[in-house]
Specification:
Largest sheet: none
Shape: flat
Number of domains: 1
Distance between the termini: 27 Å
Order of helices and strands: HH
Mean pLDDT: 89
Low-confidence stretches: none
Strand content: under 5%
Number of strands: 0
Length: 49
């Protein structure tokens, strides 16, 4: 029998502020994934298939 899925805790304080700032940067295109990280993630994904 499986266990029930727990609710995700809410972010508060410094964690919430950091999350909001990173999301704003991502929306503005300031945070980009390096080509090396992208290639490594793609290789891992393809190996899992």
């Amino acid at each position: 029998m499986s266990l029930p899925i727990k609710n995700t805790p809410e972010l508060t304080g410094k964690d919430a502020k950091r999350f909001i700032e990173r999301m704003k940067e991502a929306d503005a295109g300031k945070r980009r994934v390096s080509p090396e990280d992208y290639a490594r993630a793609k290789a891992t994904y393809e190996a899992a298939l």
